[in-house]
Amino acid sequence: MFLANGSFEAGLGGWRPVNFAAAVSATVIDDSTQAKQGNKFMRVQTSTSEGSIAQDVGIPLYVTSATYSSTTETVHTTAALAARSLCFSVWLRAAPGQGPIRGVVALWDLGRNASVSTAFEVGNQWTQVAVTLDASAQQVRAEIYLMTANQSLDVDGALLV
Q1: Is the dihedral of CA 128, 131, 132, 137 positive or negative?
Q2: If both were cysteines, with which of 6, 101, 115, 149 could 158 make a disulfide (CB 3.0 to 4.6 Å apart)?
Q3: What is the pLDDT of residue 47?
Q4: Do the beta carbons of residue 78 and residue 63 sit within 8 Å?
Q5: Are strands 24-30 and 101-109 parallel, antiparallel or unpaired?
Q6: Distance CA 96, CA 94 (A)
Q7: What is the Cα–Cα distance from 76 to 120, expressed in whole angstroms?
Q8: Are strands 101-109 and 84-94 parallel, antiparallel or unpaired?
Q9: Domains in the chain: how many in total?
Q10: CA–CA distances in Å: residue 129 to residues 22, 79, 100, 132, 136
Q11: Contact 80, 65 (CB under 8 A)
Q12: pTM assigned to the model
């Protein structure tokens, strides 16, 4: 819901290398027979362990109450970040003929510089990996770290809800 282009149908839009950025490369593969969802998916590789690719996302404020004064004809709203859980889920696999690939899926609350993460190890079958952050964050980062260098990780169906 909050991620831009989680299915990579519009290229890499929104996704960028972050940790050891110069060592990370990403391309979009257009092959509906290999994609988990749609026609395209991202293939990412790092030459250095812990290289990552990520997307920073603004989480909108939610109006928690609104009042209308007919006397002054004004609307007063109280906006607040609702305490909520955000879940980042993504489908991952080692590119055909490669693997297994180890890594970490993380979700950062950039305002607090706090994160939650889960480690993964994937083979050649699509595997969903998810992590949940309890926060009232305005800015988060959905990030995938590769611990296995010089092998390609396929990524598709990324969601942040």
Answers
A1: negative
A2: 6
A3: 98
A4: yes
A5: unpaired
A6: 6
A7: 47
A8: unpaired
A9: 1
A10: 25, 33, 15, 11, 22
A11: no
A12: 0.86
